[in-house]
Amino acid sequence: MTKAVNHYDVIIIGGGAAGLFCAFTAGQRGLSVLVLDSSNKVGKKILMSGGGRCNFTNLDIQPHNYLSANPHFCKSALSGYNQWQFIAMVEQHQIAYHERKHGELFCDHSAKDILAMLLDECQQAKVQIKTHCLIDSIATQDCGYSLHSSLGDYQCRSLVIATGGLSIPTMGATGFGYDIAAQFGLNLLPRRAGLVPFTFTDWVKPICDRLSGLAVDVEMAVNGVSFRENLLFTHRGISGPAALQLSSYWQPGQSIDINLLPALDAYQLLLQCKATNAKSLLRNLLSQHLAKGLVLELQQLYWHNYADTPIAEIPDATLNHIAEQLTHWQIKPSGTEGYRTAEVTLCGVDTDHLSSKTMECKTQPGLFFVGEVMDVTGHLGGYNFQWAWASGYAAGQYV
Q1: CA–CA gap between residue 15 and residue 70 (Å, rounded)
Q2: Which structural domain, as residue segments, surrounds residue 228?
Q3: Residue that terminates a domain, selected from 223, 243, 261
Q4: pLDDT averaged over consecutive 10-residue blocks of the chain (399 residues)?
């Protein structure tokens, strides 16, 4: 006996941030909306984000906070639904939140509050949500699209792909959204892990291992892009906000430049120490500004010949060279930890195929892409959630 076919105005594949937002936005227009998700519950990445507190947006959202082959693509959606509108919704639902550094907004209590808000909005908009649903095939038909799934057959006028990227496969991430894009002839830009820790296989690895757990305020740079944030040494390499931010701009084989004393003129500091603390050792002077363990590692690397020499006896040229090492510490990652721990997937569905106003495919009417599956990736700090809300809203207005 064949299963009954279910008709909807809109079917959204993927119950993450972008998918749920798109769902209730469309539902509020009186459309019948169905969300299909392959996992056992929706919004898993929302729940784990921000250490369980969900960094749901940022007070300062700008297009330059996003990476894309087309840097202009994100502008329309971000202006169409901005951070203030989302904050207003959070306040309307009486969710307590606070600001951390760089305008990052987090829930006071739990990321569960944000997911509950989205699900409440979906319920009010009469959105249906089905989990444990695997899509076997998608085909076009006169009235839109037909889907064959593990839960039965479905038809819709508009189909929204909100499947996310490849990051954190333990949360159920797959490349299914890319497969759909390829099925309908859309170009895919080479994907790679973003906002991800760096790993090392050379001389840097044992240093990271010995310093594991140490956080340092640094400025990290690559390809003309720099970030002033904390760097965290780990047993595998380096993490922390500075490293995660930089990973989205780094390419394999490149060295990264680290300024370990970003708030100081290192050479002038050493000359001043030479004038006022002539008998002091370099490691003791630098330990006033950097963790002692890090100073000892750097000493072993760069000035072991002067380890027990009073600073007054170290030539200025040598001090200048040491200052360069401190402010331009060059290390070359062997790679990253990959999708296993990456917060986002860089690149994806080429935005040249999509309308920046509606998120609809230009060559395939009724097919929409929202969120991380497309080639728009935000910085760390709430930017990717804002893109999910904004792109979901844009599509939800037009499906």
Answers
A1: 26
A2: 198-261
A3: 261
A4: 72 98 98 96 94 96 97 98 98 98 96 98 98 96 94 97 90 89 97 97 96 98 96 97 97 97 96 93 96 97 94 96 97 96 96 98 97 98 98 98
